[in-house]
Design brief:
mainly alpha; two-stranded antiparallel ribbon; 12 helices; globular
């Protein structure tokens, strides 16, 4: 190592070590500790019993609730990501125009993202109330009988999707807006000289130039959606009939309701595996559609 590099490392270590030690003790070691716990049958009271891969075999072969929770999570992820992507991109395109109050709208869109998710969930719980909620009140005013949003297996998960998309799209709107404002204006001016219409400019300039931002939004929204927990816990508690029980909520239930800590740890590592594989696939596929300037 060069003398300059050693000096720079020595100067950086006092700033890195406090965070590094805390991260190692309170994040990294506990995470890898759960890998060992996943090989145990343990309820945190009686002595643990080593079962090897028994928790994983049971999960994939004998636990139908695991597959139901996984299916619910995939369903939620697909619906929420589509809603977030469409809403945030549409909002960013609207705000990218030279309109009055653009900064105010940008702030208003971002506020749900920094609000307490539990508090927001409670507000939406009231909005969805079938008897006195504002949503059904508006529907009744125009002659439509509103559904029992959170107590019907057909509407409970879509209702949670809408609420989740509303809380997140403001953040991704800001990300998309930053990407749009980094597109060189000369490209649009050249397209205007060639007589290109709005749709042609959107497809041939905006989409390719915005593709790195779109890729980031896609990856982050999928990761966030696979980890959904607070919304379903507060609004539906996993019901009705297990229809909104997601992977993280199932892990929580096994760990803290049934004290099956070993099995919950195994579920956590399988969820990590799912997210890792999906993210890896996205990274491989990005070469086919994401455009990076040299």
């Amino acid at each position: 190592m060069k003398k300059t590099s050693k000096r720079q490392l020595g100067e950086a270590l006092p700033f890195i070590l406090p965070h590094g030690i805390g991260f190692t003790l309170f994040m990294l070691l506990p995470v890898f500790g759960t890998l060992g716990i996943s090989l145990l049958d343990w309820n945190m009271i009686t002595p643990p019993k080593f079962v090897g891969l028994g928790n994983y075999f049971y999960m994939f072969t004998q636990d139908p609730n695991f597959w139901k929770a996984t299916t619910n999570t995939v369903y939620y992820t697909i619906g929420t990501v589509i809603l977030i992507f469409a809403a945030s991109l549409g909002s960013a395109l609207a705000l990218n125009r030279d309109i009055k109050g653009r900064g105010l709208f940008r702030t208003l869109y971002f506020i749900p993202n920094i609000s307490s998710l539990v508090a927001v969930s409670l507000v939406w719980l009231w909005l969805y109330n079938a008897d006195y909620g504002p949503i059904n009140a508006v529907l009744r005013a125009i002659g439509i009988q509103g559904p029992h949003w959170l107590s019907d297996t057909k509407t409970a998960m879509p209702a949670v999707m809408i609420m989740s998309a509303w809380t997140q799209f403001g953040f991704f709107t800001v990300i998309f807006l930053a990407g749009l404002q980094n597109i060189p204006r000369q490209l649009y001016e050249a397209a205007d000289l060639d007589g290109a219409g709005m749709m042609r400019k959107f497809l041939n300039i905006t989409i390719p130039q915005l593709s790195p931002t779109m890729f980031f939004v896609l990856v982050m929204s999928i990761i966030n959606s696979f980890q959904v927990f607070e919304q379903t816990l507060v609004m539906t508690k996993g019901g009705p009939a297990f229809s909104t029980t997601t992977a993280v909520m199932y892990i929580y239930s096994k760990a803290f309701k049934f004290q099956q800590v070993g099995y919950a740890s195994a579920l956590s590592w399988v969820l990590f595996g799912f997210i890792f594989i999906i993210t890896l696939i996205q990274l491989r596929l990005q070469k086919r559609w994401v455009y990076y300037e040299n």
